[in-house]
Amino acid sequence: MLCLLNFTLISLLAAYFPALLGNGKGPAQLSFSNHLLITAAATLLFLKVAAIWGSLRAGA
Q1: Which of 55, 20, 23 is nearest to 41 (CA)?
Q2: How far apart are CA 44 and CA 60, in angstroms?
Q3: CA 35 to chain centroid
Q4: Model's pTM, two decimal places?
Q5: CA pair distance 27, 8, nearest whole angstrom
Q6: Per residue in 15-52, pLDDT tens?
Q7: What is the C-alpha end-to-end distance of the chain, expressed in Å?
Q8: Alpha carbon of 12 to those of 31, 32, 40, 46, 59: distances in Å?
Q9: What is the spatial distance between Cα 29 and Cα 48, in angstroms, rounded to a whole number?
């Protein structure tokens, strides 16, 4: 049940933050081209850590 909830939440967040998915190449390219503000970078960092922690906690 926790796994289903976790991945549903990640999919909903990915609709608003597509750079959340993947291995970090997307946010890195955005930051190198100056299209990523510091607030967006901090938000993505927090969401990425939360998504990884939730996935590991759910057993995925």
Answers
A1: 20
A2: 21
A3: 17
A4: 0.80
A5: 22
A6: 999 988 988 888 888 888 888 888 988 999 999 999 99
A7: 12
A8: 23, 26, 17, 16, 20
A9: 16
